[in-house]
Specification:
The complex is a heterodimer of chains A (156) and B (262). Chain A has 156 residues and is mainly α. Chain A has 6 helices and no strands. Chain A has one domain. The termini of chain A are far apart. Chain B is mainly alpha-helical and 262 residues long. Helix content of chain B is 66%, strand content 9%. Chain B has 11 helices and 3 strands. A 3-stranded antiparallel beta sheet of chain B has the order 1-2-3. In chain B, strand 2 and strand 3 form a beta hairpin. The chains are: A mainly alpha (156), B mainly alpha (262).
Chain lengths: 156, 262
């Protein structure tokens, strides 16, 4: 049991570091850095827990980014800071870098050494995963703020 | 709003200039479209015009202000040159807007504040270290071994240093991204060449993660879903171009070392 907890804790810490580092690359204001780090830890841990419950990675990513979207909505109202500052740094640990990279290397392979069925299978597998996870992140982040948009002009 | 006196054409032009300058700064440094439009409208109301209409396209802003019971209109256009993302400037502009509403300053305050805005740069060696550590953490999260962790740290720190040098020389982002990806892949491939690690592919893929165009991608989705379709496409293309530049850098490094996948 404690081993699992330590694993979760380590993952949370190692997810907070990229969020912090990328926050610095995007030059976020100093006082928001800590929230970026917390956000990164929350997002990755949420996805990890959901995946432990046998939820597929795409859906887990979508739910995790929806969670951080809702939390960041609260933070941005409290501190009067634009929401993307928190959300974009926080979802950085979710980015499907390895899938996208593998898909690209497969493309290079196909060009250099000829197309084989195995390469096509690997390419489609990885590219699909990368695209669906990316779409999940985007829609998940946008969803909480779309809830507040209404057609407030009466159509007559 | 009853005590509002009539604005002359000159005054209104000055107000419009101040508003569009703020809007262009926000667009250049990577703010969301809703935020740009909201801020422009709030600045306009606080400075005493009746309404502000904004038309956004990725490379320019057209902005009209209406005053004197909608009878007098000033329209102006500015070109926007996209720069590396800098959220502290966007934050400062938003804070300026809130201060303006709270303390009822005039247009000179806006122009003066915008002239004095300084980007909040972090110590460059701290950023180099943190980005190296971030990419190494990616390697850890993708279940790499410790050798791959170290190599990723080395490769992405070096890449971040190159990226900072190129940004300082004001190269456009496509060149910066391509060269940075080249350097990162070249360094990380020592894991593959000398068989230092059992997971060299993770070291290779994690070391270029510092080039992930997160802001353009997420902004494009947010813009498109909130009804700014042209902006959504523009930012999408920007993100794709940056990704293509990164890929070209990686491919060049692979060809140079004549690695074949793994």
């Amino acid at each position: 049991m404690s081993e699992i907890l330590i694993q979760y804790l380590l993952n949370a810490i190692f997810a907070a570091i990229p969020a912090l580092g990328f926050g610095m690359v995007f030059n976020v204001p100093r006082y928001t850095l800590i929230y970026c780090a917390i956000g990164g830890a929350i997002t990755f841990s949420t996805r990890y827990i959901l995946m432990d419950f046998d939820i597929p990675i795409e859906l887990a990513t979508f739910l995790a980014s929806t969670t951080i979207g809702i939390i960041a909505l609260y933070w941005s109202r409290k501190y009067k800071v634009p929401r993307p500052i928190y959300t974009i740094a926080s979802i950085i640990p979710l980015i499907p870098g390895t899938y996208a990279f593998t898909a690209m290397i497969n493309l290079i392979d196909m060009n250099a050494h000829g197309v084989t069925p195995e390469l096509i299978v690997m390419f489609v597998d990885n590219a699909l995963k990368a695209i669906i996870i990316l779409a999940g992140i985007g829609f998940g982040l946008a969803l909480p703020s779309l809830y507040y948009i209404r057609y407030n002009r009466p159509i007559t | 709003m009853s005590e509002k006196q009539k604005l002359t054409n000159q005054e209104q032009t000055k107000i419009t200039r101040a508003i569009i300058k703020a809007a262009v700064l926000m667009l250049e440094f990577g703010a969301e479209s809703t935020l740009i439009e909201n801020t422009a409208q709030r600045l306009g109301l606080a400075l005493g015009v009746d309404s502000v209409e904004v038309s956004l396209i990725p490379s320019a802003i057209v902005l009209s202000t209406l005053s004197n019971k909608q009878s007098q209109s000033v329209t102006t256009t500015r070109r926007a040159h996209h720069k590396p993302i800098n959220m502290s400037i966007v934050c400062d502009l938003q804070k300026m807007c809130q201060d303006l509403e709270k303390y009822k300053y005039d247009v000179d305050f806006v122009l003066k504040t915008m002239k004095e805005i300084q980007p909040n740069y972090y110590n460059r060696w701290l950023v180099v270290f943190m980005v190296g550590f971030s990419c190494a953490s990616f390697a850890y999260l993708n279940k790499a071994d410790w050798q791959a962790f170290g190599i990723t740290f080395l490769a992405s720190s070096l890449a971040m240093f190159v990226r900072q040098e190129l940004s300082r020389k004001k190269f456009i982002m496509i060149i910066t991204f391509g060269v940075t990806a080249f350097v990162a892949t070249l360094t990380a491939s020592i894991a593959l060449i000398f068989n230092l690690s059992s997971t060299p592919n993770i070291a290779l893929s994690s070391s270029v993660m510092l080039l992930a165009p997160g802001f353009p991608f997420i902004n494009s989705v947010l813009d498109a879903l909130k009804g700014y379709l042209a902006m959504g496409w523009g930012r999408w293309l920007q993100a794709v171009l940056l990704t293509v530049a990164t890929s070209i850098g990686i491919i060049l490094a692979f060809t140079l070392l004549s690695l074949k996948g793994w």
